[in-house]
Design a protein that fits this description.
With 321 residues, the protein is α/β, with parallel strands linked by helices. It has 11 helices and 7 strands. The protein is elongated, with a radius of gyration of 23 Å.
Length: 321
């Protein structure tokens, strides 16, 4: 019974996980998106102009994003989502970089597109964060920290060998965790029918809700499909046992994509998809979805900057202060 209670506790954590996963990706509005409001107007103009000149000279696309908090989501996962939504870099070169700063969480990351990983290595990005940006952030100077860090990234991309030669050592931290659990089928038999119904309503209410959202929502739907697989594989065990959970998992793996493909052909789904792409938000079933899916073009003054369809493989480095 204790194991069942532990699983129920994990299901409560699931609520937090979903909330974090749902953190909005801001709608793309320029090379510098300062949603945390930590940069002066002068700094934003300097950065915008510098990034524009760099892109004209090299073709590389660099964007800066600040936001107050990620509400528990890891900065690596969030940066990957932003990069995919904004599609930084040219499609055939993947030469984009995202610099993201989250002041309330005291976290930052330099996310690097596939095509620039050989130049802006993880080690190089980590060194820029650790030696150039972090000291300024510790003094509360976000303007200088982000400016100096961004200009350092530009120098590396444009072939500043002096800065590259400063990288003389490598660091890395690895961690592994594993858990082993015994079968709980025998403990499930001790639950009364009322207990199973109550627990089942709780568990299936949570994962069922997000399954429906995934089916009817453009864009994030397939991400939710993959994200929910371990939850459909694990949590039904508490009520149905291992065999019942296995049946639930197989049903989910088949029904979700089938329903998704059917709904994609409806007019309201296409309208929602178009609204998300063009307006950054859409109404589905009475509730509003918002998205940073601005992978097309956007304008910031006369900059004419737009994501070019590039992608990132998770390269880069994160840091804190």
């Amino acid at each position: 019974m204790n194991k069942i209670l532990r699983l129920l506790l994990i299901s409560l954590i699931l609520l937090t996980a979903f909330d974090a996963m749902g953190a909005d990706v801001p709608y793309l509005t320029g090379r510098v998106t300062d949603n945390a409001q930590i940069l002066s107007s002068e700094t934003q103009k300097l950065l915008t102009d510098s990034l524009k000149v760099h892109e004209e000279r090299t073709g590389n696309q660099i964007a800066i994003l600040t936001l107050p908090t990620l509400d528990g989501e890891s900065i690596e996962e969030y940066a990957d989502r932003v990069f995919k939504e904004w599609k930084l870099g040219q499609k055939d070169k993947d030469n984009g970089i995202l610099i993201i700063v989250v002041p309330n969480d005291r976290r930052m990351r330099i996310e690097v597109g596939y095509g620039l990983e050989g130049t802006m290595t993880d080690l190089m990005a980590g060194r820029i964060i650790r030696d150039i940006i972090t000291p300024k952030f510790k003094n509360g100077d976000y303007n200088s920290g982000i400016t100096d860090g961004t200009l350092s990234v530009i120098k590396v991309l444009e072939g500043d060998r002096q800065l590259e030669s400063a990288i003389l050592e490598t660091t890395g931290d690895e961690g592994m965790a594993s858990e082993n659990s015994n079968s709980i089928d025998s403990q499930i038999e001790d639950l009364s029918i009322i207990e199973r119904i109550l627990i089942g309503c709780f568990i299936f209410g949570i994962i069922g809700l997000f399954t429906i959202i995934g089916i009817v929502s453009p864009g994030v739907g397939w991400f939710l499909y993959l994200f929910l697989i371990p939850f459909w594989a694990m949590f039904p065990i508490v009520v149905l046992g291992t065999k019942g959970a296995f049946i639930c998992l197989i049903t989910y793996l088949i029904v979700f994509p089938a329903a998704k493909l059917i709904i994609k052909r409806t007019k309201w789904y296409e309208k929602a998809k178009t609204d998300l792409r063009t307006k950054g938000k859409a109404s589905i079933g009475g509730f509003m979805l918002s998205s940073g899916g601005s992978g097309g073009s956007f304008s910031s003054g006369s900059s004419g900057f737009s994501g070019g369809g590039g992608s990132s493989g998770g390269g880069g480095s994160s840091g804190s202060w």
